[in-house]
Design a protein that fits this description.
binds calcium ion; mainly beta; about 5% helix; 6 helices; 9-stranded antiparallel β-sheet; PhoX family phosphatase; binds MU-OXO-diiron
Length: about 675
């Protein structure tokens, strides 16, 4: 493929100023319109969304808290066409809910129950994914098709199949599936990836909090759980006294509610709910082009707080790599490498999930170790090669018993092999031309990573007076990137550097703004990360990197945002010296590492969202002329009308009504490629 550097290699729009307005702001010469929003009916016969808390049937509507998204093209005849830019299936994750807006007067008995069944059903069905046909009417105006046969909701109640090494093992045997091969649903779907054979790979992130399993008292139920189970539950944070929304308390009782209580009981796993938490924390592959197929949970990719799963650059005859962050403070970066070499003919296979079986059910899971000299190692998490995890935090030594054990508990295995704990690994993105891998490290704080816990890859510890809980630590986050040895996704070694450090450009401490950010491109807490499709303009551009933010230490002066970047390559920055300070302000530590600087030509703010939103989820049509962006939870704090949000109504000047998560379409008025 021919890649021609755009000349001049600069971002061709005027930066959007930071702001606290209750609208989506885009550069001059661009326009924004709402494509889908929470509650929109996507199945024939479903009523229009009233948006007053009375709506039901969310398994037939767009869910809440839209997160990662992906556009799968359709040709005029409605057939799969990866290059189509006028019609397609938009797939979106629905990570979570703002429960206040889903009921007429907010949730009933939220803190400890009993929850009314009708409320719990609504909240459960607002999670999962939506698949909806979207089209351009021929003039650049996009809308969704309510009655399309491609439309589908996948929710926490949808039947799933387990595949790979853990399928059929004791870890997955439940009341629902005594054989351990079937599961129910997917939850807290955060970021994603897509496979070249035309499927979505959706990721289960903060699933642990949905389960009731107190970490003390009689309901902790230590008598009926092995030390191994208790160690794993603690390491994965299954410790809520009620579960996020107390669904297990819902009455009248149904199994779809009770399952959220991870009780051990006194009998076999098939008579209790102890293994329900093992149903979640996976990468789930779904075929958008065939809504009748059952989602497949790919256990070979491991179970953790999966943020995303981005496939590396594919090379025929080489193995397929998938890069995955585990988003919690001090968690790890993982890579899966297929056992099978890539055959480009598989991109057009008709049984897409069978192709997924070929590449995603057999392979090796690795975890990253970042060395101080700018090199790194992928450490294999393979039974027989992973030492026992030493006794830690009151839990005894953990002895791995099988590969399935390692794949259910990669966090324990990664601890044991000495992987590098990171400042909250969020999205991964792969430069489609060079194959370099980028990873957002959204932030960390002093209680999780104190001054003496810094390392070359997580080097910062400073005070941000606006940072509240992040005050000391790395309140603004950074973006790290790596290049595989030999540019081969199967490599066990890599080179890395730090691409960007988040900062408030107004911070008077020069040590904070290490990347030289200005008012036009400063940001905090990077999260969403995506390279534009290399098919843009028939491959005649270098891909842009899009960076999205989530909360962070700039929210006093701006809502969350999206920036565009021309990032260069691993190793093209210069050394920077970082001075870390202790809480007295005294210099306590200095490190010099390779890092890059941003310039006005290589990093610019493109979009600012409405109040209390996160910007997350981005894709474009293959021609690069239509950009889809996810606006997640405007008015998240639970109040609408000032000081809360009335978005998207406020986008067209109506400052009333409940806010809704939505996908917006961003177009350039000239019809040109977005951003260039
Ligand atoms: Fe769902 Fe880590 O963001
Ligand atoms: Ca995220
Ligand atoms: Ca985040
Ligand atoms: Ca969010």
């Amino acid at each position: 493929e021919t890649v021609i550097t755009v000349s001049p290699a600069a971002l061709n729009f005027n930066a959007v100023a930071k702001n606290l307005d209750d609208v989506v702001t885009v550069p001059a010469g661009y326009s924004v319109s709402v494509l889908t929003a929470l509650g929109d009916p996507i199945i024939a016969g479903t009523s229009a969304y009233a948006n007053d808390g009375t709506d039901t049937d969310f398994a037939s509507r767009i869910g809440d808290h839209g997160d990662a998204l992906h556009f799968f093209g359709l040709n005029a005849a409605g057939e799969r066409d990866y290059s189509a830019s006028a019609r397609g299936i938009l797939v979106q994750n629905h990570e979570n809910i703002t429960e206040t807006y889903l009921h007429p007067n907010g949730p009933t008995n939220l803190s400890s129950g009993p929850r009314p069944a009708a409320e719990a059903i609504k909240e459960i069905e607002c999670h999962g994914l939506s698949f909806v046909e979207v089209k351009d009417d021929g003039t650049g105006k996009w809308s969704y098709v309510q009655n399309s046969a491609f439309n589908r909701r996948v929710t926490p109640n949808t039947a799933t199949t387990f595949k790979g090494p853990v399928a059929g093992t004791d870890y997955l045997k439940t009341k629902y599936s005594p054989s351990g091969t079937a599961g129910r649903g997917t939850i807290n779907n955060c970021a994603n990836g897509y496979a070249a054979w035309g499927t979505i790979m959706t990721c289960e992130e903060n699933w642990a909090g949905y389960f009731k399993r107190p970490s003390s008292g009689p309901e902790e139920d230590t008598a009926n759980r092995s030390d191994r189970e208790q160690t794993a539950l603690a390491r994965y944070g299954v410790r809520s006294s009620t579960g996020n929304y107390a669904w297990s308390s819902a009455t009248p009782t149904q199994d779809i509610f009770t399952r959220w209580d991870a009780r051990a009981g006194t009998g076999a796993a098939t008579d209790d709910y102890r293994n329900e938490p093992n149903q979640f924390g996976w990468v789930v592959e779904i075929d958008p082009y065939n809504p009748g197929t059952t989602p497949r949970k790919r256990t070979a990719l491991g179970r953790f707080g999966h943020e995303g799963a981005w496939v590396g650059k594919l090379t025929p005859g080489k193995k397929v790599a998938v890069y995955m962050g585990d988003d919690s403070r001090r968690e790890y970066l993982y890579k899966f490498v297929s056992a099978t070499n890539w055959d480009a003919a598989d991109a057009n296979a008709s049984n897409r999930l069978a192709v997924g079986d070929k590449y995603l059910d057999n392979g090796t899971l690795y975890v990253a170790k970042f060395n101080a000299d700018g090199t790194g190692n992928w450490l294999p998490l393979v039974f027989g090669q992973v030492p026992n995890r030493p006794a830690t935090g009151g839990f005894p030594e953990y002895v791995f018993e099988s590969q399935a054990d390692i794949l259910v508990n990669p966090r324990l295995a990664a601890d044991a092999v000495g992987a590098t704990p990171m400042d909250r690994p969020e999205w991964t993105a792969v430069n489609p031309v060079s194959g370099e891998v980028y990873l957002t490290l959204t932030n960390n704080n002093a209680s999780n990573r104190p001054l003496n816990g810094t390392d070359a890859a997580n080097p910062r510890h400073y005070n941000d007076p606006k940072g509240s809980s992040n005050q000391y630590g790395n309140p603004n986050g950074h973006i790290i990137r790596l290049r595989e040895a030999g540019d081969d996704g199967a490599a066990t070694g890599f080179a890395w550097d730090i691409y960007l450090f988040g900062a408030d450009s107004a911070d008077a401490d020069a040590n904070v703004n290490i990347s030289g950010l200005t008012a036009d491109n400063d940001f905090s807490s990077p999260d969403g990360l995506w390279f534009s499709r290399d098919q843009n303009a028939a491959g005649q551009i270098n891909p842009l990197l899009w960076i999205q933010t989530d909360d962070g230490a700039l929210t006093d002066r701006t809502n969350c945002m999206m920036l565009a970047a021309l990032p260069g390559h691993v190793g093209d920055g210069s050394n920077v010296t970082i001075t870390n300070k202790d809480s007295t302000g005294a210099t306590a530590q200095q490190t010099t590492i390779a890092g890059a600087a941003a310039t006005a030509a290589t990093l610019k703010r493109f979009l600012v969202g409405p109040k209390q939103c996160e910007i997350t989820g981005v894709d474009s049509t293959p021609d690069g002329r239509t950009l889809f962006v996810g606006i997640q939870h405007p008015g998240e704090n639970g109040t609408y009308d000032a000081p809360g949000s009335n978005w998207p109504q406020s986008q067209s000047g109506t400052a009333s009504g409940r806010p809704r998560s939505a996908v917006v379409v961003v177009k350039r008025d000239s019809g040109g490629i977005v951003g260039l």
